[in-house]
Write the structure tokens for this entry.
Amino acid sequence: MNARSVVGTPQAGRSLHRFANPGQFLRLSGAVLPWLTAGAVALTTLGLVWGLFFAPADWQQGDAVRIMYVHVPAAWLASAGYMALAICSVLSLVWRHPLADLAAVEIGPVGAGFTALCLATGSLWGKPMWGAWWVWDARLTSVLVLFFLYLGHVALVRAFDDPTRGYRAGAILALVGVVNLPIIKFSVDWWNTLHQPASITLTGAPTMALSMLWPLLIAAVGYMLTFAAIVVARTRAAVMERRVRGLLMARAASDGAEAPVVASSGEAAPERAAAERAAFQAAAQESAR
Amino acid sequence: MTHLPFIAASYALGVLVPVGFGIAAFLRMGRARRRLAAIDPRAQRGGLA
């Protein structure tokens, strides 16, 4: 009886660590990324063009309501991106998933960018509607706190010489900051705010016309695919950069030991050694740039 | 169209922010792929880079 028959056949896909292999991630993401990018461009363009030129104006707000087709998807992504950051943090802290650390590092700046977009478009919507660029309203303030949490995460993961310590500290900050998400969501219900309550809920019918709802949903899906494509592309780059660093360090260590390069047959191969040295120097110069 | 400057500014930001992040990400990915291919040709052959 062999060991496999005792413990059972390992079932691929039953474990999170199936996707922890960077090589497998590069292959999978390389296949998915073009489709993700194409869908993102198509749906975002369709949603924005529909919202800008074909959706009706609001009876009260006039054409200013068209800002909604940028502002609302950015606001949803600000919160959803932070939730993704928190999930990566759990995967990192509990299961030590190596790709979760890299994904969290790459989600941070993108999430901060979309939160800034939400705040800026909200300000551009608030000025003509409320007469003010900014008010210290519960919704606006809690989203501003979210923006600072993103910035804090971006700074913290880069603040340590040892990247692993940065990942751990960033993960803890991300999990602590999750408390802000329900505050953002329910701020318009818990406090008397200038910001309007939610028009779309999971439990009730939407309070907006379908002619406005469709372009909003299409723009939202398009922006979500855009966010995902950017994060996947950045994570792919991070995986390759880490592999380059590892190879450079390994070669630097072997060069330091002055070990001769030996061909597979066991004989010294000066041409191959020279070629490897040239490639190493080229990569090092590229890294330095 | 009422409030046109506010709408135009919002849509400009709504396009520029994702496009900026997207272009930066794809340039960074291409740079990383070239670096990896320069020092590890196996990665290119295996379709990893």
Chain B touches chain A through 35 residues (CB under 8 Å). The mean pLDDT of chain B is 87. The longest helix of chain B spans residues 4-39.
